[in-house]
User: Fold these one by one.
Assistant:
Number 1:
Amino acid sequence: MKHPTPDTNKRRLLQLAGWTTLATSAALLGCGKKEEAPVAAAPAAAPAASAPAPKPAPLKIAFAYVGPVGDGGWTFAHDNGRKAIEKEFGDKVVTSFVENVPEAADAERVFRDLVGQGNTLVFGTTFGYMEPMLKVAADSPNVKFEHATGYKQAPNMRTYDSRTYEGAYMAGVIAGAMTKSNTLGVVGSIPIPEVIRNINSFTLGAQSVNPKIKTKVVWVNEWFNPPKETEAAQSLINQGADVLFQNTDSSAVLQTAAKNKKLAFGWDSDMTAYAPEAHLASAIINWAPYYIQATRDALEGKWTGGGGVWWGVKEGAIDLVSVSDKVPADIKAKVDTIKAGLKDGSFSIWEGPLVGQDGKEVLAKDAVADDKFLGGVKFYVKGVDSKVPAQ
């Protein structure tokens, strides 16, 4: 057996040491690779959700009313139009109103206050607000002003009106058929062309079915004054009128007719409930179509000043509603035919030959009055048995 020599042992020790060193280096090298491995990147943060665009501030709209919202007539009709805006546009608008604003210098203060509250669309709902609105409009170029029944405009003020004479004419047709005394009575408010035109139209409607009628008029020189309206209505009844009409804002005329067992009409709003036994029909104004259109124009940046509109049956602004069962069927049918003709333009109320109270011709045969003519009516037609007040 061959034994290892010292040299052999030495070589083995050196060899073993080499393997050990190699193994250690390999281990260290492996450890170095682990330490140098790239650290996994943190996941990218999700992009922040974009904040919703701020909601536009609502359009602030204000109304100035000449009477109380509970008058049952003119102001009540305007307030129904305001409510229609709220229903149509929801939280895109905020509306408010001031009632019983007089047609005087105080109206200017009210309009300035409405502007100061941040309203940028302001409606003035009676003729007497025209001059005060013009003054405030001149000082408030960024506010849009709408004036009912006026004729003066500005770059930021326009006018709107309803053809109330169409409702008056249709009521006249019924009155002419229902009167037994052939005397009709009208309670007038302010003797401006609008009201004189309505009295004439009522008379023309009555004459279309009963040429014998005459119309008496008593003026109260106010839009809303129930005691004065009551007194005027009683005066007309005392003069022989058995069917009453009005161009005032309350239900007093209709109620006075009922107390005297006479007949009458509602005006501006449906007044049936105030005296159903006397009520023949109501000539109403629906302001909603115009108020909604004006508001939409303002919201969409399409509103323009300096002009005016005059809407009637055709546009859904005027109607005769709640016609009583006391009215004969043939008269109801006649009213329906007239209404259809006004809607499609085939019927004209103011068409010649037409003569004034003094017997002089005011419209030649086949001539149809234009809006300029109608806007300047300051005379009574033949058949009105009263004098036009001095203006």
Number 2:
Amino acid sequence: MSIYNKLASKSILQAGEVALIGAGPGDAELLTIKALRLIEQAEVVIYDRLVSSEIMHLFSDSCRKIYVGKALHKDCISQDKINDTIVEWAHKGKKVVRLKGGDSFIFGRGSEEVNYLLAHNIASHVVPGITAASGATTYAGIPLTHRNVAHSCSFITGHFSHDGKLDLPWQNYADKTQTLVFYMGVKTVATISEQLINHGRESSTPVAIIHKGTQIQQKVWRTTLANLPSLVAENNIKPPSLLVIGDVVNVLNEHQQLQDNTQQAFFAPDDALLPTIVNTRATG
């Protein structure tokens, strides 16, 4: 019997209930056991753009899959329509999974959806997921905090508001011992770089961009705050990408150059054995 089967399940999805599940940053092995058990019971899944295909393959062939992906600044299904779609399938007596990338309570509007379900007398299971700021940075070898380097971390939404502005309390981000993580910030790197430098961050502050963190397509770029906009432009970096700003970016960098563009969260000394070790880990 597997360890998975030895653990008694407390996750029973009844007809007409909804499980709001954080799918994490993409690697299916980062799902919680609770999430996996609810996924196995799903009759309908309503999922977002940032949910990886690897995770979607875990649903049964008989499960109805409804895509409600939302892309920034593009025509997409409104949040109101998504809310109504979840309620509609729950009222039909289906076992519904609402699947969102990362953690649904961190820039995921999950709390809005739970409030809407409760207002319509629908019971909800909420399952946390590993948010990109944690999963993607760890896989890239970047600790969000590190002794004598960073003692706090801020998660910040980096996309323009409807009026085309990025109004943030920039003065709060001047402390170099604070790691900054920007979600949805690739389109606004010029503003982010300018404002942080204007409010006290050194232009030489290390920055990492992690594209599709934890997934097989993961790619990591490292630069400085001053050179951030040109890096994004020269490499045509697109979402989903996470910006990490602070001295923690280079804590492990000198020892893990070969790790930057692999999704494996595996680190070994930079010596003659490293290629063999990495290849063994990746295929084992």
Number 3:
Amino acid sequence: MEISKVVYKLMEEEMTRLLLSDVTDLTYIYDTNGNILFVNKIFEKFTGQRPEEYYGKPFVSLFNDEDQKIVVDAFTKTLKGESAQYELCFKNTGILCEYKNFPLRNEKGHVVGITGIARDITARKQIEEGLRLLNKSLEKRVVEHTAKLVGVNEELMEEINNRIRLEEEFKQSIKKLQKSMRGIVQTLSVAIESKDSYSIGHQKRVAKLARCIAEEMGLSKDRIEGVSIAAALHDIGKITIPTEILNKLDQLSEDEFNLIKTHPRLGYDILNEIEFPHPVAQIVLQHHERLDGSGYPSGLSGKDILLEAKILGVADVIDAMQSPHPYRPALGLDRVLDEISRNRGVLYDFNVVYACLVVFNEKGFKFDDRLCAANLKIFEDVLIGV
């Protein structure tokens, strides 16, 4: 037979036989009838059968009945001169291999048999299956986590919306509180002026000047608002002082003046019962304290006095000196500023006096209803807290 001559010729070549026998992949040669003519020594490991026991036997017998059609189809295709590739398990061992068939031709190019290689892909397939299962598991976890994230995102969005709603409600509450505060301050201010005819407009003027000084010193918006409100109420304690003393035409006696000096403490007691968003009561309490400790009611000095109280103290003194009283006429602005300047660092805070002089000399502050500077708001705006 022509096929036998070809095969024998191959087998006579010792190097070829050794090469085919030593590779880790299974090599095989079938005749045109599908009988096994040659396999290398790895055949026994792959199939569980000795090679010599299968020489001359059909190769399809190595596979399960249900898989034999795949083998036959590949064999038929190869006999037609085409290469074929497939994957199957050996029935005895379950080893999964990848098979590649090639036509074996004679000198004239006729197909006289089939040669091929089978490579063990069991481990690779197991890894691929493991990766497939892992990927499936990961996809499932991604879906689960995505669902959780969607839920968390929805909760966060709900929380954000709730916070926005609460913030808006809070802003509205603040506006209502500011409106109520304005009413309280205005009522108290009117009550003070109704007792002391010489103080009409005094608190309003002091509030405007104190605000300008605080702005010039670069205080925060909250602190400026605090000093403005305190200035608008700084004489609230006088509401408990007898009217005849407040409106006395003659010089006050020592006892009467000592009674007047209680108004910061009385004002503190009144304002401390009101929940202002600023230390208004403390500022009012300290507005007659002086840097050197000569003030009242506590004789505080230096850093023990709130900066807002130091500002209010300067603004209060300036307006008081410029206003007429039964026992003395009003002093001119130049004299007032000179008096303040000479006592800076002694009675009055140096930086406060410096800012005050800038407000008057450079910003053109005047005790009237006009704005003293670009950012100055009128008294009513101060009370609103805008």
